[in-house]
Design brief:
Elements (H helix, E strand, L loop, with lengths): L2 E7 L5 H7 L3 H6 L3 E5 L25 E7 L2 E3 H13 E7 L1 H5 L11 H10 L17 E6 L9 E3 L6 H13 L73 H4 L17 H11 L30
Parallel strand pairs: 1-2, 1-3, 3-5, 5-7
Antiparallel strand pairs: 4-6
The structure holds iron/sulfur cluster (SF4) (3 copies).
Length: 311
């Protein structure tokens, strides 16, 4: 019998849903075993009265074995949908770094709602001068929250977006009734660049010019970008973006430093503090970091980014 799946997107950009489509042929092979009972990205579902239970006053989501939720929780509607998903799904999966750690939208946690609305509606944005939204929209919560700050989560699939190989592993494991095997190490552990351990750069360089490498040269012949003096967050970021058989981490393949999009190596880690440690152990002056809060650009939930961090 097919496994019932419900999917929801909260404070999300839909990139995580595209990552599901990127499963490609694997998706075709698992689809016959899945029964999507609720998936707004593909089908029009009404939140009220969709199960035919006659109660049109409470948000309801059909019961499912597996619930996939992308995006964090930023407003009252996200919160209620997350709670309904938790109630309806036996296993709840946080899909993507917005759901696991707040993601890029949690950068807003450095500012209060008043400052946000003031800046958006009273400075030179496209909506400057327009009226701020009133009661017709769900009210904002005080912060942008990761999913597990509001409801219990059973499985975490970080990544912005997650790699299709890990999504495939999670789905296959659930169908087979076993625990999924997911990466636990750091991006550096999947990076083949050369580390000399000496002749390092003492202060960080801004990434305004290309790193030192020869075009066409394999990644395994390029020197580690951190050793070249670039703020590469590979040491403090969960592995996974290289997939099961890639040349290396996604950004490194493009010869660009890791920006930390899979969140901390340990689920409750702090990428900012961990990166200061990594810089110190690489003899790089951590006062040369221009914007320290940017090291939490993907993991500012769980109270790590707060009002007043930003000046
Ligand atoms: S984790 Fe990335 S891809 Fe997924 S919803 Fe958030 S911003 Fe989009
Ligand atoms: S710091 Fe960056 S370049 Fe160096 S090994 Fe780690 S991921 Fe690769
Ligand atoms: S290298 Fe870093 S920023 Fe780039 S995709 Fe991988 S985890 Fe994300």
């Amino acid at each position: 019998m097919a496994v019932k799946v419900a999917s929801e997107w909260l404070n999300s950009c839909s990139g995580c849903e595209i990552a599901i489509l990127n499963l490609g042929e694997t998706l075709l092979s698992v689809l016959p075993h899945l029964d999507f009972v609720h998936i707004p990205v593909l089908m029009d579902h009404k939140y009220f009265g969709q199960t035919g239970a006659g109660d049109v006053h409470h948000l309801e989501i059909p019961e499912a074995v597996v619930g996939l939720v992308s995006g964090g929780i930023r407003n009252q509607e996200h919160l209620e949908v997350a709670q309904a998903m938790r109630q309806s799904c036996q296993v709840l999966i946080a899909l993507g770094t917005c759901a696991t750690h707040g993601g890029i939208p949690s950068l807003i946690n450095q500012f209060g709602n008043e400052a946000l609305l003031d800046r958006y509606y009273h400075t030179e944005t496209t909506d400057a001068g327009a009226e701020a939204p009133g009661d017709s929209l769900p009210p904002l919560l005080d912060h942008c929250y990761a999913l597990d700050e509001k409801v219990k989560v059973d499985l975490y699939l970080p990544g912005c977006p997650p790699h299709p190989d890990q999504i495939a592993e999670a789905i296959t494991a659930l169908l087979e009734g076993r625990a999924p095997v997911l990466p636990t190490k750091s991006v550096c552990d999947t990076c083949p660049t050369i580390r000399h351990g000496k002749g390092k750069v003492p202060v960080l360089r801004r990434f305004t010019q290309n790193a030192d490498y020869q075009p066409g040269q394999p990644l395994s012949e390029m020197r580690c970008l951190l050793e070249q003096g670039y703020l590469c967050m590979g040491p403090v970021t969960r592995a996974g973006c290289a997939g099961n058989c890639g040349e290396g981490p996604r950004c490194l393949i493009a010869r660009v430093p890791c920006r930390g999009c899979f969140g901390p190596v340990q689920r409750d880690g702090n990428q900012l503090l961990d990166m200061f440690n990594a810089l110190a152990s690489n003899d790089i002056d951590f006062t040369s970091v221009i914007d320290p809060s940017s090291m939490l650009r993907f993991s500012g939930g769980h109270g790590l980014l707060r009002e007043g961090c930003k000046r």
